[in-house]
Amino acid sequence: MLNMKPLAVAILIAVSSHALAEMNSAQLLQSGNDNIGAIDQQGSGNYAYLQQEAQDNSQATITQSGVSNSASVYQMQGFENTTHVTQFGDSNTLDISMTGSADGAIASSIGNNNSIRSEQYGGVSSAMLTQVGDNNAIDSSLQSSTSALVSQTGNNNTAYVTASSYRLGSNQTEVTQNGDDNQATTRITSQFGNIALTQDGIGNLANISSSGRSTRVSGVSTGQTNTVDISQDIETGSVRFEQAGDGNILAVNQEGYSGYYQADVTQVGIANQATLVQSAGEQLGTSSAALSQTGTGNIATVIQR
């Protein structure tokens, strides 16, 4: 009976997959304990690169079907790392880099000219990134115990996710984009934080930044060309918003320390504008603001110091 180590099996898979399709290229390098790698390419002009130098149970799987797809996986540090890459279509690009601890990443692109970039550093980080459509882009950077869930359905959507945690905390970011030409940028640095954003429509823009301890941001933009700009740097903060319609603009800035702030915003209609600013500096206190606008061209400003 022929007994081959996982490294040998992975190399055979890579070589055989390379021989099946014309002009495909597959490279695989492994070292350490119990590594398993598999590359399966169908079509022409595809390129896959997989390198694992971990000392524990690392696994990586790349499957590409179509023309001119590119994928690379890079895992260096050990302990239960895993990667799953699937691309169906043409000219898709995917790059995943993970170093250390119990990391995990699952990425999938179905369509053409999509791109995914994922980086994870330490802790119990995990990323699940999916794309269905054309010309979509995801850029995810996770550090320590953080997780990211990004889903894009449509065309020309862009999502940038940056997350890090401290003091044994954990953060979670979830971005869902349905439609075309939506843009989302999220940044979270918190001990226990959460960002949940849904964009449903065309040309919606969101920029969300949250830092501190026990921060929460969640909201939905439905329609066309709605804009959301939220930033908070506080001990405990929460923002919930909903925008439905076209051309609505929302800006929320909660700043301070131990402010226990909360904002609840709803805008329905066309070209409404809402601005909420809650800032207590270093003073302890509790602030709450709720705003609802329905119609066209409404303007509201709430400031609490």
Write the layout of secondary structure elements.
Blueprint (H helix, E strand, L loop, with lengths): L5 H15 L4 E6 L5 E9 L2 E6 L6 E9 L2 E6 L6 E9 L2 E7 L4 E9 L2 E7 L4 E9 L2 E7 L2 E10 L2 E23 L2 E20 L2 E8 L2 E10 L2 E8 L2 E10 L2 E8 L4 E10 L2 E9 L5 E10 L2 E6 L1
Parallel strand pairs: 1-3, 2-4, 3-5, 4-6, 5-7, 6-8, 7-9, 8-10, 9-11, 10-12, 11-13, 12-13, 13-14, 14-15, 14-16, 15-17, 16-18, 17-19, 18-20, 19-21, 20-22, 21-23
Report on this structure.
This protein has 1 helix and 23 strands. It is flat, with a radius of gyration of 22 Å. It has a 23-stranded parallel β-sheet that branches. It has one domain (6-304). It has one helix spanning 6-20; strands spanning 25-30, 36-44, 47-52, 59-67, 70-75, 82-90, 93-99, 104-112, 115-121, 126-134, 137-143, 146-155, 158-180, 183-202, 205-212, 215-224, 227-234, 237-246, 249-256, 261-270, 273-281, 287-296, 299-304. The protein is mainly beta and 305 residues long.
